[in-house]
Specification:
Blueprint lengths: L1 E9 L5 E10 L4 E5 L6 H8 L7 E6 L2 E2 L5 H6 L1 E4 L11 H5 L1 H5 L4 H14 L4 H4 L9 H13 L5 E5 L7 H18 L2 E6 L2 H7 L2 E6 L2 E6 L1 H6 L4 H7 L3 H7 L17 E4 L4 H10 L2 E6 L2 E7 H12 L6
Parallel strand pairs: 3-8, 3-9, 6-7, 7-8, 11-12
Antiparallel strand pairs: 1-2, 1-4, 4-5, 9-10, 12-13
The structure holds adenosine-5'-diphosphate and magnesium ion.
Length: 317
């Protein structure tokens, strides 16, 4: 869907922000780019919608070079959500959401319907919120509107640049959860930038780790956790994780047994994290066996949630 071939970006002052990277982002994928500040993440996003030109290489969307698209066609088909909510302060929430549909000359009736549909989708009662001004909303609500505005004209691609990093931890977790359930419905191709590994593991189908403008590793959350490519990734995935992997016990994350357990792959309760993750790559759920008995179930979400929690010191037992 979005393909980078040997893409580099050097700014006029000589800064090499992105150095010959290759990426293939699949249709409908939640693709997370993570890296420390200055590693080139924002530059990557801005090159996709041609906010900045590349120095060399090619970026294609659906096998057509981005330079061959009409610039408006390209921009209107790519939603963009920024860290600093850039809602227009003098326009109502409804008017803010309507910007791209207006540019695309949608009928007024259709635009009104779309505004209400989107507000409902993100849990903001349309009758209350559509005519409010941005300053009458909390930061979390504004960010929610930022997401709906990017979705307004139903673009197939959405770019999100640290969209939740300015929020308090509770609003942030809530918006992450909302985005996960939203993505299940809308199935967009999302390129999401963050510097928070916990967020990356929670949201990403795949994660691309960047350092100094280069790609260090691309993989699923499981692959990054179980097989970090080098010391940089290992540190980034979290120092606390080392001892945690040794302490890993399926007993901590068992889910209740359900009716379907008979058809499931079985994992011994003594399995290591690595064994668990590799079996979970092929099976959504596993039955856990101890002393010849099925004692519970385990799924991918439970493992990832536990690992992500351990990185923030939540799991110390
Ligand atoms: P990130 O989003 O990962 O923090 P950026 O893509 O914003 O990284 O920046 C990558 C590098 O490019 C940094 O060294 C940054 O200082 C530099 N940079 C970003 N924008 C410009 C610019 N307009 N002119 C010169 N250097 C820039
Ligand atoms: Mg940035």
């Amino acid at each position: 869907m979005i393909q980078f071939d040997n893409v580099s970006k050097q700014y006029r002052d000589g800064t090499k922000a992105v150095d010959s990277i290759n990426l293939h982002i699949k249709e409908g994928e939640f693709f997370v780019i993570i890296g420390p500040s200055g590693s080139g993440k924002t530059t990557i996003l801005k090159m996709i919608n041609r906010l900045i030109p590349l120095t060399s290489g090619t970026i294609s969307i659906d096998d057509k070079r981005i330079s061959d698209y009409d610039i408006h066609e390209l921009r209107w088909n790519i939603g963009y959500v920024l860290q600093q909510i850039a809602l227009f302060p003098h326009m109502t929430i409804g008017e803010n959401i309507a910007i791209v549909p207006e540019l695309k000359n949608w009928e007024q009736v259709k635009i009104k319907e779309r505004i209400d549909e989107l507000l409902e989708m993100v849990g903001l009662e349309p009758d209350i919120y559509r005519s409010r001004k941005p300053h009458e909303l909390s930061g979390g609500q504004q960010q929610r509107v930022g997401v709906t505005r990017a979705l307004a004209a139903n673009p197939p691609i959405i770019l999100m640049d640290e969209p939740f990093s300015a929020l308090d931890p509770i609003s942030r977790e809530k918006l992450q959860d909302d985005l996960i359930s939203l993505q299940k419905k809308i199935k967009k191709t999302i390129v999401f930038v963050t510097h928070d590994m916990k967020e990356a593991l929670k949201l990403g189908d795949r994660i691309c780790v960047m350092k100094d403008g280069e790609v260090v590793q691309i993989g699923t959350p499981e692959e990054l956790l179980a097989h970090p490519e080098n010391k940089f990734v290992r540190q980034f995935v979290g120092e606390e994780q080392g001892p945690y992997i040794e302490r890993f016990s399926l007993h901590d994350i068992l889910l209740p047994i359900s009716e379907t357990e008979e058809s499931m792959a079985v994992l011994p309760a003594s399995a290591t994290l690595e064994e668990t993750l590799s079996l979970l790559a092929a099976n959504n759920e596993l039955a856990v066996e101890e002393d010849g008995e099925i004692i519970g179930l385990v799924n991918r979400q439970a493992v990832i949630r536990k690992l992500a929690g351990s990185m923030q010191g939540e799991v110390k037992s």
